[in-house]
Amino acid sequence: MDPQDTAEFAALLDRAPGDGGGTDRRDELAALARRPGPDGHERLATLLTEYGRPLWEQEVAAFALGCAGDRRAFETLVFLLNHRDADRGATAAYALARLRDPRTARAAAVLATNELRIAYALHPVRLLTALRAPESAPALVTVLTGLLAGPAAHTELALACVAGLGALGDPAARGVLGRAAAQPQLSAAAQAALVRL
Length: 197
What we know:
Blueprint: H1 3-15, H2 22-33, H3 38-49, H4 55-67, H5 74-81, H6 86-99, H7 104-112, H8 122-131, H9 136-149, H10 155-168, H11 174-180, H12 187-196
Helix pairs in contact: 1-4, 2-4, 3-4, 4-5, 4-6, 5-6, 6-8, 7-8, 7-9, 8-9, 8-10, 9-10, 10-12, 11-12
C-alpha cells in the first residue's frame, strides 16, 4: 500500500470492533493486508465469500484487495458504496477508485440514480466525479434534475452533483446547473460550476 492507502486503511481499522476478540482478528487481517503476494490475497478473497463473516471483516478484506487492484473485491465494494453507514461508503469509494475496474462507473451510476436509495447516493456521486468516466456527467445530471424537481432536500448531495458537474466540464450540464443557480442553497456553487463550463 502507498502512504495514502495506508492512512485510509489505518482509519478503517480504527472503526473495526476492538472487543470480543475483535482486536486479535483486526491485527490478523491487518497483517494479511500488508503481506504482498498471492497468499495474502487468496486468504483475504476467501473472507469475501465465507458464510457468516462479520461485515467489518469483509470491508477490511475488500479494501485491501481493492487498493491492490484485485478485482475479486468489486462486488463487496459496490455493496458497501451504497451502505447506510457513510464511513463504509467513503471507504468503498476510495478503494473502488484505486481498483480501476471498468465496471465501476456503470455500477456507481446505477447506485447514484436509484431514487429509492437517494439518501445514500453521496459517495457514488463523488466516485463518479473522481472517475471522470463517460457515465459520470449523465448520472450527475439525472440525480441533480431529480433533486431539483422535488422539495428542497439532500442539499449535500445536490452540492456534490453541482461541484462534480463543474469539475467534469460537460456542456450538457449547463441547463441543470442554470436551474440549480436559482436555488438559494445551491446558487453560489452552481454559478461557480457554470463559470468552469
